[in-house]
Fold this protein.
Amino acid sequence: MRYNHLILVIMLGMVFLLAGCGNSPETQIYNHLEEAVKLEEGFQEQQDEITKLEQEEQELYKQIIELGIEELDQIKEFAERALESIEKRDERISLEKESLDASRAEFEQSKELIGEIKDEEVKEKALTMYGTMINRFDAYDILNKTYNESLELEKQLYEMLQREDLEQEALQEQVEKVNLKYQEVIEANSLFNDYTSEYNELKKNFYEVAEINVKYID
C-alpha cells in the first residue's frame, strides 16, 4: 500500500483594498471574494494535520508488514493505532469540508452582483471567474467523497489485519482496492488544484480590468 499526502493549492489572499471604489458592484464582489478566502484559512490548517496523520499511518503500516504472522498481538496493536489515526483524519476531513462549504456560500453571494456590472468586458471576466470557482468547489466535493471512500477501505484493511484467519489472497485484494481508490484521490486532487490555479489567475485579471487596486500577500 502506498500513501501520498494531498497537496492542495490555496487561493490567493489580499492584504487590503488600496483604492476604494465606493459601493460599486465590483467592490462588493471583491468583499465577497476575499471573505471567501478568509473562510478557507482553516482549510490549510486541516491539510497540515491530515498530512501528519497520513505519515503516521504510513509508518504504522510499514511496521505491520515487517512483522510475521506469529506476531499477531503486535500486528493488532499497530492496526488499532492505525484505525485511531484514520478516525482523526476523518474528523479533520469533516472540518475541512465545513470550511469549503462556508467559503462557497460566501462566494455565491457575488453572483447577483455580477449582473449589475455595467462594463461588458468586466462582466465577462467576472462570469468566467465565477464559473471556474464553482467548478473548483464541485471538484472538491468529488475529492472529498473519494477521499472518504479511501478511508473506509483503509479501515477495512486494518480490521482484516487483526483477524487470525486472514488469508493472504484476501489481504492482497484489499490492498489493491486501497491503492486503486487512492489513485482516484490523486486524480481528483489534481483537478481541484488545476481549478484553483486557474481561478487565482482569473481573479487577478478581474481585479485588473475592474481597476480594483489590491496589494497581494507574498
